[in-house]
Amino acid sequence: MRLKTMGSRTTEPNGATISRPVLFFDIDNCLYPRSAKVHDLMADLIDKYFAAHLGLPDEEAIRLHQEYYRNYGLALEGLVRHHKIDPIEYNAKVDDALPLEGVIKPNPELRKLLEDIDTSKVKLWLLTNAYVNHARRVVRLVGIEDLFEGLTYCDYSEIPIICKPHKDMFAKAMREAGVERAEDCYFVDDSFGNISAAQKLGWASVHLVEEGLPLPETQASRYQIRHLKELRGVFPQFFKSSDQA
User: Is the bond leading into 165 cis (omega within 30 degrees of zero)?
Assistant: First the structure.
């Protein structure tokens, strides 16, 4: 399996190293469609976790879950900060408990798109707020795990938990992917907040707003797309062909 969790630089035959730009991809609701309803399944498990472990009625559990997500970018961070929840135990009850095998399917069209990216020109890297187990599971089910050179994930075993859109998460991604300059970072995510934060750091950021969802009143970044295939037009320098099919 090609996918690994730490960055490396390309080594030339003469021993010299070169640093390629990096194209970072979010995973959930980005590499598979929102219509798969994974987000809904996960939200339901999180709500149940809040209710069971904090002793809250359902309505309050849902409200607090949403509040922590808005404030921290990850509901788990609020649980750890304010309730000393064990994040690994949480992961087992939520992310790892998702019935993904019956929901996420291989995507030959996406695989074809990613295979047409010239990896001598750009490094493909995953950047997610999920824990490593979930991240690897999803890209395996989609059938694209071998196309990425690495993965930066939210490490639930480290306190404090660092996740997007915090600037430290983007700095971590750059370190692990082996890229030093913000202008060499390219990023695709479905989250307005994550894209907006990356844009402010100087990353060339693309907000994926899936077809059927309302467009934001103000764009999160310079680039906004409805489908990943539109990346050919946004970053044509990274593709082997201009075929839109």
Answer: yes
